[in-house]
Structure formats: structure tokens, C-alpha cells
Specification:
Length: about 200
Amino acid sequence: MTIWFATGNEHKRRELAAILAGHSVKIPSDAGVAVDPDESGDAFLENAFIKARALFELTCEPVVADDSGLCVDALGGRPGVHSARYGGGVNGKLASSERNALLLKEISGASSIAGRRTARFVCAMALVLSKDRFFAVQETLEGEIIGEERGTGGFGYDPIFFLPERGLTVAELSEREKNRISHRAKAARAIGKMLEII
């Protein structure tokens, strides 16, 4: 089956294709189209469906889309759905290191919940098979926020997201290990199981 993935990220495509072995995974650039809908939802799942439905309207073939981000307990779940644009204002976008520094500064100021550095990466993934037939899943990777960046792998908040059971940040994991345990990999495997039974 051909599965369209609503992303422009080749790394994400390879990751999904490895999990959905046996299916052909395409992205919009393969067809020379650009899909960039306004991700105006208040929840990860809403945004995943916005992207999936926008691409489905163009392809009329099965589409997978995801929306993900970091939720920090001491910040009331922020940055959440605004993770990629956190601290950048309406049109701006900070570099990853700048967003990480801002997040660490805000956590240190959250005195009412002092010491609570628990957080999770969240990934919502939607599979749209037709206008009226769709599936969704949401997965997490639980961890803590540490006080400084560690590691050179990964991207985004990975250098400050610590996994206590491994004693490493996500940025210190091998790419293979990250792809095995990440929130996105868990969600993609669940979507893969759905595809097996449809």
C-alpha cells in the first residue's frame, strides 16, 4: 500500500518507512506539492488531523501525519503544541539552543512547583484512509528536564531531556536507540498494527 506522510522531513520519512516495512511511504515533495496548513489546534491530535486531512485532499490515498512536542509539568504542560515556536512570538522562531535556554530559565522561576522537572515528549499520529475513515494514536516518552544541555545527537529539546533509567539525555542516545524508544516510534508502530488489520 502507498502511504503518504504529511512531512517535509526526510529523516521522519525514513523512520516511518522502516517501521511500516512492506508499504511505500511517500512525502509531498515526491509529487512536487507543498502542504503547509495552519496548525491552529489546541491539542497535538487536532494538529495531526489538520495535516493529514490537508494532504488527503490532494492525494485521495492513505495519509499519516503527526504532531509532537514537549510538555513540562512545572510549566503547566508548556510548551506543548507550541514547542517548535516556543518563545519566538507570532512570526519568529528561536534556534533550538535558545528555546532550551528559555525553557530552563522558566523552570528555574517556577518556584511554586520547585523540584518538579518531570516532562514528556508527546506524539499524536493520525491515519486517514478516506473522508470518513480514520484512526489516531498518541504516545509519550517520559523523562525529566536537566539543567544544562548534554549530548550532540538528536535535535530540539533532546539535549535537556533526561531519561533516568538510562542515565542519558535523548541527545546522548544512538539514533537506533532513539528510534526504538521515542514517542514518534511508538506511535508509528501502533499505526503499523492498524494497517495490518484494515
